[in-house]
Amino acid sequence: MAVKPSRAQKKVHYDQKLCRLLGEYSQVLIVGADNVGSKQMQDIRTGIRGDSIILMGKNTMMKRSIKRHAEMTGNEAVLSLIPLLVGNVGMLFTKGDLKEVRDEIAKYKVGAPARVGLVAPIDVVVPPGNTGLDPSQTSFFQVLNIATKINKGTVEIISSVEIIKQGEKVGSSEAALLSKLGIRPFSYGLIVTNIYDNGSIFSPAVLDLTEDDLVAKFAAGVSMVTSLSLAISYPSLAAAPHMFINGYKNVLAVAVATEYSFPQAEEVKEYLKDPSKFASAVASTAVVSDAAPATEAAKEEKKEEPEEESDDEPMLNLFDE
Q: pTM of the full predicted structure?
């Protein structure tokens, strides 16, 4: 008969396993496991098997092992995981794509009834329609101020009504009514609360960013750098084109206001002396742009048509032997 390991031996084994995982994996998802059952957890482990491992445990043990791993390896970055270990959480170590792993564990959410005392994660709305309950059950609806009517011997809800708001605790009346209606309003599963990636901590909302979002944020950052550089007259790669244009405008203004001139200013001075030249230049540009489609159309019309077969070829005599 195998000897059952002692409590101290279990702690040593857990510490060794967590330190080994911290050394092998550079990506860790901190997941909340409130109201997640053992069968549900088993299904999640099976679904992510291959490139991901979930490790649950007491927060104090996990924090102790993380500190020990940092002392042994000198990897101080893992210490940033310690403040995240609050509440009923676990650590999901992965080498796969973070977004795909998050979406995979989200598939294993299961419906759950509204039990008394639970904090509602979402708003609960009872839809209108026939409930199938007999008229003796109207007291539940009256307590919750739900308008009803009797239709064909059953209670019918006239309009949809919100009976539980997000963040509120479920009362006994709400729980009893939802149970009678067969409504399981809540769903529970592992929820990613924070992400650790090579020493960086960020929110799971980052995984939903698209390339367009990143380009927009980058453009906004470049715009801020450009504005700051122009405001303090500090040259930077982003502000350099604007500085050159502004400098050119200033030099051009001086050339127009004085007798000083340079080749690039001559054309501007000519337009200022005779504005009709500028109007004619704009008109000619417009004519050229309008003529371009016509030219393309003419080219298409000039495409050579396929030559018809010649009728001059001698026809075969069907009666020749």
A: 0.61
